[in-house]
Amino acid sequence: MLMVIAIFTILIIYDFQKFIRKKEQARVFVINIFIMAASMTVSFLLAAGRRPYSPSQWVEALLNMIGVLK
Amino acid sequence: MEKERISSIQMFLLLSGFLFGSTVILAPTTGAKNDAWLAIIIGGVGGIFLMWVYASIALLNPSKNLVDILQEKLGKVIGNIIGIMYAWYFIHLASLVLRDFGEFICTVTFPDTPMVVVIGVFAIVLLYAVNSGVEVLGRVSEVLMIIVPIVISIISISLINVHDLTAFLPVLENGMAPVLGAAFSFIAFPFGETVAFLMLFQHINKKEKLSKVVIVSAILSILIGIFVFFRDISVLGGDLMARSTFIPHITAMFIPGINVEPLIDLNLSIGGGIKIVVCIYAAAKALSQIAGISDYRKLTLAISTFCVVLSIWEYNNILELFNWAEKIWPLYSIPFQIVIPILLLLLSLRKKKVKKL
């Protein structure tokens, strides 16, 4: 868990200090924060041993629901 | 628009590397067993047609990439929604190839290293490549892609004494159905995945050579596929080949006296690396364009991080990965690889006809 926090802190500081220095548009921050938050949440859950349903499983369930997969 | 330009040779090598990609370790036609060569030929013909569709879309819409074309043909709102879906598809594909790489390296080369470390380190190198831009990517492919046929030749020549040339017989022992199923898988993986190149085709300097480049790289990929199949089956035999996880790795183990495993790692790093870089570039470029961000590099770190997390998140184990890649990926890919591109081609042709009138 600590490792996940450390890695994401380094990545976020590395990226965001550049954005702040260059006075980037708000949308750059919003998209980056969204993707990083999603990555961090999934990483925490995986580190805690609570693997959430993955997109592959969603796709499989969707294909099952529409009857493409048997 | 960026003024980055790559030559037709560089585009050819990028496409060949992309097609070679994870087929170094995964054979999409294994379902056809001894008749995989037939599946490669049938699927290859379909793949050439699909890649010709992508090239035609790019030629009918010069200086435009996939997102520009979607916005122009389907309107801003629908175009942007489908553009986001494509960005997701490219991220998903990149994570799938990252996982292939991680599984192979952690199973064969570094069994004691955690997979997240292997994938993370590889992703850092690839992030540097994506941020360097298309021109650098083209030049790197010129340097690296020459290694791929050399490695295949070294392995094949080393096995010249160990083979049974009748191992692929009898032909069509299980009928045509498995062959057609495997051929469809072969169209989706790897040929259909070159839809990501619709984000790159605008950078080729001689547009008139695009169709030729695309078709020649597809034919080369088919020929390499057939050659590697006959090499593997003549060394392993149909039964062992059907039961093997990483076929080229097992084949290489039959070389007497030496261990050439690192050469397969090298080929996977080159082919898989090109494929992941193209996918991350396509996803970052599509998202930045839709969001109105001037430079795709502002999103590459976040996207690469997400790809690494997604590659670990997606599958519990290698069997789940193989099952998904073989059975679900081709169906999931149909809208992205076939339906939307054909719709775009028809809309582009209609516009051209209206202009002529």
Task: Describe the 3D structure.
The complex is a heterodimer of chains A (70) and B (357). Helix content of chain A is 76%, strand content 0%. Chain A is mostly helical. Chain A has one domain. By secondary structure, chain B is mainly alpha-helical. Chain B has helices at residues 8-20, 36-60, 66-74, 76-109, 115-132, 134-144, 147-158, 177-188, 210-236, 238-243, 247-253, 261-291, 297-314, 318-356. In chain B, α5 (115-132) crosses α12 and α9 (210-236) packs across α11. Chain B is globular and about 60 Å long. The model of chain B has no long low-confidence stretch (mean pLDDT 91). The A-B interface holds A 11, 14-15, 19, 24-25, 27-28, 31-32, 35-36, 38-39, 42-43, 46, 51-52, 54-56, 59-60, 63, 68-69 and B 92, 287, 291-293, 298-299, 301-303, 305-306, 308-310, 312-316, 324, 327-328, 331-332.
**What best-fitting shape of chain B do the alpha-carbon axes yield?**
globular
Class derived from helix and strand content of chain B? mainly alpha
Number of strands of chain A: 0
Distance between the termini of chain B: 30 Å
Q: Can you tell me the number of structural domains of chain A?
A: 1
What is the average per-residue confidence, as pLDDT of chain B, rounded to a whole number?
91
**Structural class by sheet pairing and helices of chain A:** mainly alpha
CATH topology of chain B: Amino acid/polyamine transporter I
Strand content of chain A: under 5%
Q: Average pLDDT value of chain A?
A: 89
Question: Which shape of chain A, going by the Cα principal axes?
Answer: flat
Tell how many strands the DSSP assignment of chain B holds: 0
Q: What string, H for helix and E for strand, traces the elements of chain A in order?
A: HHH
